[in-house]
Amino acid sequence: xxxxxxxxxxxxxxxxxAQAYCAYQERCTSEVADKLKSLGAGETTxxxxxxxxxxxxxxxxxxxxxxxxxxxxxxxxxxxLKIKAALYQKxxxxxxxxxxxxxxxxxxxRRTLQNIVEKKAADLKQDDPLTxxxxxxxxxxxxxxxxxxxxxxxxxxx
Length: 158
Prior knowledge:
Blueprint (H helix, E strand, L loop, with lengths): L10 H14 L4 H10 L4 H13 L5 H16 L3 H10 L4 H9 L3 H18 L5 H14 L4 H11 L1
């Protein structure tokens, strides 16, 4: 049985693959670095390619943070806390995270949380109102919404 040796890519091949990876959807530096590592690139090559991608506007951390925040809020209905934690994990700068979170429309944010609270409350087959509120609260908290805002919505809705 033959063991398969990993393909060794040239700098230009790695750059081309990284450009295609970034062109497909917004990427951050850490995602591109992980992709290049998986292709067998060394640290020096990775840093060089990432600098080139930034110069050519393939990578823009601010643009990534805004796209990520918008996507997670609109498609997954994540709250600001969960989005912030995920962006920290991707090593995005605090200023970009704050700018991205600021772009989420406050009215839409509250309406989304209210819909989450109402839907979860309707799904629960719970007679005790206190237990129902606690379960709805924990669910909304797990979605990344702020505690004070959750209680305000629960108080108004349930």
